[in-house]
Design a protein that fits this description.
Elements lengths: L1 H28 L11 E5 L6 H17 L3 E5 L6 H8 L7 E6 L5 H4 L11 E10 L1 E6 L7 H9 L4 E5 L5 H13 L3 E5 L3 H10 L4 E5 H9 L3 E6 L26 E8 L4 H16 L1 H9 L3 E2 L4 H21 L7
Parallel strand pairs: 1-2, 1-3, 6-7, 6-8
Antiparallel strand pairs: 3-10, 4-10, 4-11, 5-8, 5-9
């Protein structure tokens, strides 16, 4: 009898061990399991250092690291208006350890590029829309331009101006191209590889005008390095209340906000996407992050993955139509 109960006890212990193993396997199969304890999380900023994508990623990373209890490493992979960095993300293992911070160019690239190295539906999983912001048209201090009204008047007199953006097909480029087309202005576009190089040249006077997100240009406005002329949203920015909108300056209805989002490789498990979405949402609500974004003009959104998918789809439709109708090419 003693041997019988000893056998029963042994089988019971084995059963508990098997149930524990099944539980662990089920958790791992759900896509979360021990995530994210295996290794640091790679957060690819798809533009070079110094621009808004880089800054957004680096402000978010410490708060995200605190939420996930795992190191979050920002890696800059710039080039081709965000395509190279996004492609690197899509080629990574969909294990929840690689994500990308993208910019509004992500909604333009499908129409601008002849062929992308990834499928924007199958190879990409949306995580969350971080936020939106006005773009600001600024003038170099030695350009002689002090107001948008002056720029318009001089442009109507057929004086040509050069403006820089973060690249061909960037939302800044398209916004200025739409304005120039509407008003009949002859403006020359100078594309840059990112916000850092762009701001260096406008500060140095190598380019007369620059358009970039408020996040990118506001520090230089605050320091007096550049002169703000106009914002691209329908409402004035709370952080730049004296700067008029394009819509109120003679071009009603004009609206072109900048935006940032987090994406993951397409086959990343839904449970990991949901967990990352929750962590980013919490990180964005921390006082330090919220204040830094607010001070730079970013309105935090932090919606769910489905909302981001819909948002990107609408951006592709709106700006893709403009690219095609105006025959905007990747190379000048």
């Amino acid at each position: 009898m003693r041997k019988y109960w000893k056998l029963v006890k042994s089988l019971w212990l084995i059963g508990l061990l098997l149930l524990g193993y099944v539980g662990i396997a089920a958790a791992q199969g759900s896509g979360v399991g021990s995530w994210p304890t295996q290794k640091p999380i790679r957060l690819i900023a798809v533009f070079p250092p110094g621009g808004s994508v880089d800054q957004v990623a680096r402000i978010l990373a410490p708060a995200l690291q605190n939420e996930l209890k795992q190191n979050v490493i920002v890696e800059n992979i710039g080039g081709a208006s965000g395509v190279i960095g996004t492609s690197a993300m899509t080629r990574s293992d969909p294990d929840g350890y690689t994500f990308a911070v993208v910019f509004d160019t992500h909604g333009v690239n499908p129409s601008l590029k002849d062929k992308l190295p990834y499928d924007t539906i199958k190879d990409i999983a949306p995580v969350t829309l971080i936020g939106t912001s006005p773009m600001v048209l600024v003038a170099s201090k030695n350009s002689g331009i002090t107001s948008f009204k002056q720029l318009v008047e001089m442009s109507k007199e057929k004086k040509q101006f050069s403006y820089g953006s973060i690249g061909i097909g960037s939302l800044g480029h398209l916004a200025m191209a739409r304005l120039a087309n509407t008003a009949g202005f002859d403006w020359n576009h100078i594309p840059y590889r990112g916000g850092g190089p762009l701001m260096q040249d406008v500060l140095g006077g190598q380019v007369q005008l620059a358009i970039g997100s408020e996040f990118l240009v506001k520090p230089h406005i605050d320091s007096g390095g550049v002169i703000p002329l106009v914002v691209t949203t329908t409402k004035r920015s709370p952080e730049l209340p004296k700067v008029p909108t394009i819509a109120e300056s003679g071009y009603p209805g004009f609206n072109a906000p900048a935006w940032w989002a987090i994406l993951a490789p397409g086959k990343t498990p839904p449970a990991v996407i949901a967990a990352m979405n929750q962590a980013v949402t919490k990180a964005l609500k921390t006082p330090a992050v919220a204040e830094k974004f607010r001070a730079q003009g970013i309105e935090i959104v932090a919606g769910n993955p489905e909302a981001l998918r819909d948002f990107i789809g609408k951006q592709i439709a709106i700006w893709g139509k403009f690219v095609v109708e105006n025959n905007i090419k990747e190379t000048p």
